[in-house]
Design a protein that fits this description.
By secondary structure, this protein is an alpha+beta fold. The protein is built from 11 helices and 16 strands. The protein has 2 domains: 10-213 and 333-411, Zn peptidases (Aminopeptidase, 3-Layer(aba) Sandwich); 215-328, Alpha-Beta Plaits (2-Layer Sandwich). Helix content is 34%, strand content 22%. Helix 3 crosses helix 11 (393-411), helix 8 (241-259) runs antiparallel to helix 9 (295-315) and helix 10 (335-347) packs across helix 11. The longest helix has 21 residues, at 295-315. It is elongated and about 85 Å long. The structure holds zinc ion. Zinc ion binds next to loops.
Length: 416
């Protein structure tokens, strides 16, 4: 990196990562800090203390989101929001979420130390329950206004357990619904995260700039044939519902590989009826889920996959019933923020590429309303949501420095 460029304090960042990893530490070297558990509450308290020690302002909301704030000299200025999450999946790793929050905190400390006068407020936030121990993206969707009473009707666990867990953190369903903010107050939202895949590592690249957090669509497919004696019915005369489903699963793979890379498809549930050694399957219910980066690609994928399912059913003289299950819209990242991250990486002499995120993240709560960007740093062997999750010190340092310089470019008007 050019010597005169401002840089984060490497030792402070790395020591924070080590300290935080002690909270909820597991014997295998991972971290167990699911949202609103005692370990998560301890992690939150550690974050509050770190904010105090840094001399930054502490801000908390009704959804349990915790922020450090470095105010601008201009009280009516907009806020540049940086962040991620401190909660983990059960028996997770040390870097998923933690790196993004600690890099954001380190950016604020570095700028506070530099005594610059900032044209906008800077806020480093930890969002509640990104991982969905109760409700995925709870904290970020509360702020963006995507959370409502209905969001609380089917938490993982039960409603009464959720109420107890929220109360442990001093919040409630009602208070979560007060956390919505006026999104006009934000200049942009920016997050750094470990990749949780192998694309950066296998290409020996430093930074992966996310173009989009992929959308997801799912359907139930039901192939309907005719039950028959598995011995006496000639193979050529069977209407075996499983043949249609099996044919579809294999050809869906080929279709996606031929036309939709890097899109993905999955048939994860298969139920055969009546389900016996000696009866030809009459009905097969199969789940279909597919993901891609834009609405257009997702719609094209849906059209072709469903047409293929019809063809596979017809091939074996079956009928096909289908019903849509769920849809999550793709969250395209802001092109100006992407270019800003690329500029920051280049200024530091770091290599970069563009890629889609195939996992969900907090930026999708904001992408439709404010300029939003996200970038990845490598993680070893793509292992994540696992105690073996590992990102090298130098990549953690790159994460915070690129975040710092992206933030500076944005405060200096890169998006204007
Ligand atoms: Zn995460």
């Amino acid at each position: 990196m050019p010597q005169r460029m401002i840089q984060i304090n490497e030792d402070r960042l790395l020591s924070d990562l080590r300290d935080l990893a002690q909270i909820g530490a597991t014997a295998e070297g991972g971290v167990h800090r699911p949202a609103l558990t005692e370990a998560d509450l301890a992690g939150r308290e550690w974050f509050r203390q770190s904010i105090h020690q840094a001399g930054l302002a502490l801000q908390e909301d009704g959804a349990g989101n915790i922020s450090a704030v470095l105010p601008s000299v201009e009280p009516n200025a907009k806020t540049l929001l940086l962040g991620s999450h401190l909660d983990t999946v059960p028996n997770g790793g040390r870097f998923d979420g933690a790196l993004g929050v600690l890099a954001a905190l380190e950016v604020l400390r570095t700028l506070a130390d530099s005594h610059r006068s900032l044209p906008c407020h800077l806020e480093a936030i930890s969002f509640t329950d990104e991982e969905g121990n109760w409700i995925p993206l709870l904290g970020s969707s509360a702020i963006s206004g995507n959370l409502n009473r209905e969001s609380f009707t089917q938490p993982r666990g039960s409603k009464s357990e959720l109420a107890v867990a929220l109360a442990r953190a001093g919040i409630s369903v009602a208070s979560c619904l007060t956390a919505q903010r006026n999104l006009d107050e934000f200049l942009a939202y920016l997050e750094v995260h470990i990749e949780q895949g192998t694309r950066l590592e296998s290409s020996a690249l430093d930074i992966g700039i996310v173009t989009s957090i992929v959308g997801i669509r799912s359907h139930w497919l039901e192939f309907v044939g005719e039950a028959a004696h598995a011995g006496t019915k000639a193979v050529a005369e069977r209407k075996d519902a499983f043949w249609g489903a099996a044919d579809f699963a294999i050809r869906a793979r080929e279709l996606v590989l031929a036309h939709f890379v890097p899109g993905v498809v999955n048939c994860g549930i298969l139920e055969l009826r009546p389900g016996a050694f000696n009866i030809v399957p009459a009905r097969v219910r199969m789940s279909l889920e597919f993901r891609h980066g834009t609405k257009e690609q997702l719609a094209e994928m849906e059209k072709e996959l469903l047409a293929l399912a019809e063809q596979c059913a017809a091939r074996f003289d079956l009928t096909l019933n289908r019903s849509p299950v769920a849809t999550v819209a793709p969250a395209p990242m802001h092109s100006g923020v992407q270019a800003t991250i690329a500029g920051a990486a280049e200024a530091m002499g770091l290599s970069h590429t563009r890629l889609m995120s195939f996992a969900g993240h907090d930026p999708q709560s904001f992408a439709h309303d404010i300029p939003t960007g996200m970038f990845f740093v490598p993680c070893r062997d793509g292992i994540s949501h696992n105690p073996a999750e590992f990102t090298r010190d130098e990549d953690c340092i790159h994460a915070a420095n690129v975040l710092l310089h992206s933030a500076l470019l944005i405060t200096e008007g890169a998006l204007a």
